[in-house]
Model the fold of this input.
Amino acid sequence: MAFETILVEIEEGIATITLNRRDVLNALNSQVFTELAEAAENLAVDDSVRAVIITGGDKVFAAGADIKQMALLGAVDVAIGLRPSKIAFERLENMPKPVIAAINGYALGGGCELTLAADVRVAADNAQFGLPEIKLGILPGGGGTQRLPRLIGAGKAKELIFTGDLINAEEALRVGLVNKVVPADQVLAEAKKMAKKFVSRGSVALSLAKACINEGQRMDLEMGLEYEHKCFSLLFATEDQKEGMKAFVEKRKPNFQGK
Ligand code: CAA
Done:
């Protein structure tokens, strides 16, 4: 996949998307969003890919949407021109494979929101998170007002969004914004380790578990439990379920085929 503002590499079933606008701290302009949306669409249906990592490289994740580009936009331009950001985030969030954000340095505004579209977040001990949009006279428009309170609770999300203040990795871990904090030079390796573990599990079960959790957040408890029960039942039609339980009985590791 050849893009200009992102790099996509696939190795051992794990795709790594790297944001590639280093000179502007990976500020996310409309081209980045369009390319991310296309990459996510391709990776979702690529059978050779079983997990996706998104990173900004070893210095910075992303300092937000491109303010210089946004400064020139009117309401209609934003409604239409920034639509790809919504599409990109939703495609990453909903793809039937695990998506891990590997975060070094700043993850601000749209950059922080991009990490929220991932399933799990691994952060460097030097990472900084925040939604500073309020200081620009806008609100977090890349899902921040929706995904952040669902992840860390409304109270803490409101504090971050109303103040625009940044928090460090330790605080992000404490409030549940990130899953793990590791030394800065080990972020990508840790994300790959996590991806490999996900990939070693039954991929049909994992994708349905992801769907249950994501879809469940759009439903009341009763409907969510019903949805879960249907997915659970469906898994008993897979070879992976037979293999997983047979392997347990035979005291060996399962050899899942993803079907
Ligand atoms: N958009 C465009 N360019 C940006 C940028 C952004 N979000 N963030 C940084 N840059 C550019 C700077 O303009 C600068 O470029 P020049 O060298 O051409 O001047 C370059 O990246 C390096 O940045 P700084 O010199 O500012 O670096 P610093 O280390 O002094 O500060 C920072 C780092 C604290 C992250 C600071 O750059 C900053 O505050 N950036 C903006 C953060 C922000 O407000 N993000 C929210 C954006 S709005 C949004 O994301 C909307 C949404 O909900 C989708």
About this structure: The mean pLDDT is 97. The CA atoms of residues 125 and 183 lie 5 Å apart. DSSP finds twelve helices and nine strands in the chain.
